[in-house]
Amino acid sequence: MKFGGQILRIAFAFISVVGISTAGYMIIENWSFSDAVYMTFITISTVGYKEVHELSEAGRIFTIFVIFSGTGTMLYALSAGVKYFVEGHLGGVFGRRKMENEINKLNEHVILCGYGKIGREVVRVFENEGTKFVVVDFNEEVVEKVKENGYLVIHGDATRNNVLKDAGIAKAKALVAALPSDADNLYVTLSARELNPNVFIVARMDNEEAASKFKNAGANRTISPYGIGGRHMAVLTLRPLVVDFIDTTMTHRGQELTLVNIELRPGSLVEGMTVKEGEQKSGGAHILAVRKKNDRLVTSPPLEMRLEIGDEVVVFGTQEQLNVIEGEIK
After folding, report:
1. DSSP 228-253
2. FRET label pair with 127: which of 19, 21, 47, 211, CA 20 to 30 Å apart?
3. What distance in Å separates the CA atoms of residue 108 and residue 103, rounded to the nearest whole number?
4. Distances (CA, A) of 167 to 99, 135, 242
């Protein structure tokens, strides 16, 4: 039951007890209204003042009824208040602290700014991929919904530096700016780049003419939902099987064939290997593209190309083959 409903029930019970008790004293003892009300309140409150008048036998019995009903109502009101305070206020405080501790433990995670229609799709993919992430949203109702879904979330304005710091921007590997406004996403991009020069930033923009502004602000990639959606529909109309294949391999980990990109990091066992050697070591996965440290993207890389720390590779293969490569790279 909601606490507001409990308040109404308590108020109704209290008014009923006072009304019935007052009327009872007036009828049984033939007292005035003021005497009956006074007797009712000193009885319910158990302050122990002297009776207004001597009570008859019937009046004493009726007073016992007033004591039980009045104190019962007061105890119920007190317990409801304590329960609300403990479960509501203290529960909220402990819940926030627990979530803050979990967010502080995150490392190499993704920060999602905005949990609208696009943000929900982003989260769906993150879940499928097993990606660690935290959501930042200003709408309190949205935040509660995110909590109900079991995700880490911060209630705040993502354009503010302190909110991004609370989300762990210093340790994040990527940030997705998916707020409804281009101006807000641009501001988030600027703030995130200032706080973490190495974070990978993907920003939503409705106006494709703003792409250069986002790039200057520090965005690594920009996405126009309308542009992407339109092109996707056109390609789906012309080449549906190709689109279905790409969608399946890119968004459903654990399928027979999967497409992923992996960054080579220090300690990788494939450091210095050629593309051919890396493919052989994985048991048959295909390295489709390599982005070198100078940001040069090499598609269909030569088999003799050397893999270096800092390179990003696009790999296509079975989940077992990818596990071999990911396990050795990470």
Report:
1. HHHHHHHHHHH-HHHHHHHHHHHH-T
2. 211
3. 11
4. 11, 8, 38
Q: Same structural domain for residues 191 and 261?
A: no
Final residue in a domain of this structure, among 228, 263, 282: 228
Contact between 88 and 3 (Cβ < 8 Å): yes
> How far is it, in rounded angstroms, from Cα 226 to Cα 179?
15
| Alpha-carbon gap, residue 100 to 166, rounded angstroms | 8
Structure-token match 């507001």, residue found: 4
> H or E element: which one contains 134?
strand 133-137
Q: In which domain, by residue range, is 243 found?
A: 239-329
| 173 and 135 both lie in a single domain | yes
**Domain's final residue, options 228, 247, 268:** 228
pTM, 2 dp: 0.60
Check pLDDT > 50 for residue 173: yes
Whole-number Å distance between alpha carbons of 177 and 198: 16
Q: How far apart are CA 12 and CA 22, in angstroms?
A: 15
Number of structural domains found in the chain:
3
pLDDT tens digits, 270-324: 778 898 988 888 788 888 899 987 778 898 899 999 988 888 888 888 777 777 7
- Return the DSSP state at 137: E
Residues 59, 117, single domain; the answer is no
The amino acid sitting at 300 is S
| Res 123 pLDDT > 60 | yes
3-class SS letters over 3-14: HHHHHHHHHHHH
Per-residue pLDDT at 1 exceeds 60 = no
